[in-house]
Amino acid sequence: MNELGGETQIGSSSIDIRQLTEKIERESAFVNLIEMEMRKVIVGQEDMIEKLLLALLSNGHILLEGVPGLAKTLAITALAKIVDVDFSRIQFTPDLLPADVIGTQIYNMKKEEFSIKKGPIFANFILADEINRAPAKVQSALLEAMQERQITIGNETFKLTEPFMVLATQNPIEQEGTYPLPEAQVDRFMMKVVLDYPKHEEEKLIIRGNISSGVYPQPNKIVSAADILRARETVREVYLDEKIEHYIVDIVYATRKPGNYGLDNLNGLISFGGSPRASISMAIAAKAYAFINHRGYVIPEDVRAVCHDVLRHRIGLSYEAEAEEINVEDIINQILNKVEVP
After folding, report:
1. Mean pLDDT, rounded, of the chain
2. I want to staple 258 with a disulfide (CB 3.0 to 4.6 A). Which of 85, 157, 266, 283 is the partner?
3. What phi, psi does 314 have (nearest 5°)?
4. Which of 164, 3, 139 has its CA nearest to residue 88?
5. Which residue ranges form the domains of the chain, and what is each CATH number?
6. Is 332 helix (H, G, I), strand (E, B) or coil?
7. Which residues of 144-165 are buried (b: 16+ CB within 10 A; e: fewer)?
8. What is the C-alpha separation between 127 and 246, in angstroms, rounded?
9. Rounded to an integer, what distance in angstroms lies between the CA atom of residue 34 and that of residue 203?
10. Is the bond preceding 94 in cis, omega lying within 30 degrees of 0?
11. b/e 98-137 (16+ beta carbons within 10 angstroms → b)
12. How confident is the model over 134-173, as pLDDT tens digits?
């Protein structure tokens, strides 16, 4: 690989980084407008807004974990209005059935034939509220939509309309009446974002906004579904150097074989590490992070910015780690501090 005057050459092909960055700056201008509209509705929670945008631009699903009242549902609803797409909210409960999500076959006595009644999954944005309250059958029905972007009802298969995105929430505190999500499904979420309480000054603004007039600001439509699909294609064009690829693979490999990276103290603490889907998600999320920062190339800081959200739900802790009160965040921090940065 040779670099000269902003042009990067790989084999017989060359990429003009300067020209690519100029294109990304033009194509990513709408990101700031989306953030402005989101901030009309949401006070604080900058990290959540940023990660929702990353998932949207990366064509990935996102899991938001936090106690009630942190504006998870409000943020997702606002984003759906800003992008102007079909939106469905599904409240997951223990008595929810697969047919309540994907739809079912209904027999028409006059025509003496079955017809398909489509469920709420047939939308662009799906808010799966308290996703861990539904049993395994419902989760398996959702899994096909998340992975294959299609739904099978009876012997008919329907392709879902793009952009399609599952935005799920779960409460980390109240575990009564909940079901642990299958690892296969958890791995389908590109990112898991853990939300914290708002800051002191932010909470004062939240109080004022809710008790003053009783009229809440509504976000405006900024982009269309077609704009998002076009932006996703542009995100794929963001340049990812081979050294950055190597860095991403090293981070994920360190979750599987920490001893190879001088992290022998983690050997007994990790029961399983990130899958190849973690490497793919980290690469695409890093490209999207560069895109929203109006850059045409990925730098190591982009990878580090998305690393925790991509990996925290893909690392299994052993009983020994739980006994020593070591959490996933500690392990990811140790890996990032040890793996060599290009």
Report:
1. 86
2. 266
3. -115, 5
4. 164
5. 16-22+30-210+223-237 (3.40.50.300), 240-342 (1.10.8.80)
6. helix
7. bbbeeeebebeeeebebeebbb
8. 35
9. 22
10. no
11. bebbbbeeeeeeeeeeeeeeebbbbbbbbbbbbbbbbeee
12. 888 888 888 888 988 999 888 888 999 899 999 998 877 6
Q: Which of 2-6, 115-119, 208-212 ranks highest by mean pLDDT?
A: 115-119
Q: Which two tokens stand for residue 181?
A: 């999500």
Intra-chain end-to-end CA distance of the chain, in Å: 14
Q: Where are the beta strands (DSSP E) in the chain?
A: 2-4, 7-10, 13-16, 61-65, 87-91, 103-108, 113-118, 125-129, 150-153, 156-159, 165-170, 189-194, 270-272, 316-317
Cα separations in angstroms, 21 against 17, 28, 102, 297: 6, 10, 41, 7
Q: Which of 79, 8, 89, 84 is nearest to 297 (CA)?
A: 8
Can you tell me whether residue 6 is helix, strand or coil? coil
pLDDT of 5 reads: 42
Using the predicted structure, report yes or no on whether residue 1 has a pLDDT greater than 70: no
Report the alpha-carbon distance of residue 31 to residue 256 in Å, rounded: 35
Amino acid in position 2: N
Looking at beta carbons, which pairs linking 315-324 to residues 24 or more positions away fall under 8 Å? 315/255, 315/270, 315/272, 315/273, 315/274, 316/183, 316/270, 316/271, 316/272, 316/273, 317/269, 317/270, 317/271, 318/268, 318/269, 318/270, 318/271, 320/268, 320/269, 321/268, 321/269, 321/270, 324/269
With beta carbons less than 8 A apart as the criterion, state whether 314 and 330 touch. no
